[in-house]
Design a protein that fits this description.
Length: about 100
């Protein structure tokens, strides 16, 4: 479907990466989402220590915003899902 194996696809869904920098970015994005943008200075320092700069941090935040916005609009519009449904938390990826 997207060039990823089933295991890679599921790991992506769960926010797990093999690359340390990518993992730090995913963890930061998850925190932005979970805390509604109220991330700590320590979290910003951690993602920067992993190799991200201010522009990268902003891009991560904007990706969270874009996904949140489209999800809200699609819920309100009751958009028909035209791709296979995924049951949240159905699989567990070994880390």
């Amino acid at each position: 479907m997207n060039g990823l194996t089933e295991e890679q696809t599921e790991a992506s869904r769960q926010g797990v990466a093999n690359d340390a920098k990518v993992q730090a970015g995913l963890q930061f994005a998850q925190s932005v989402t979970k805390n509604r943008g109220q991330v700590t200075g320590e979290e910003i320092a951690a993602v920067k220590a992993a190799g991200y700069n201010d522009g990268d941090v902003l891009e991560i935040v904007l990706n969270v915003v874009a996904n949140t916005l489209t999800n809200y609009v699609n819920h309100i519009a009751e958009t028909e899902i035209d791709f296979p449904s995924v049951e949240a938390g159905k699989f567990t990826v070994a880390q």
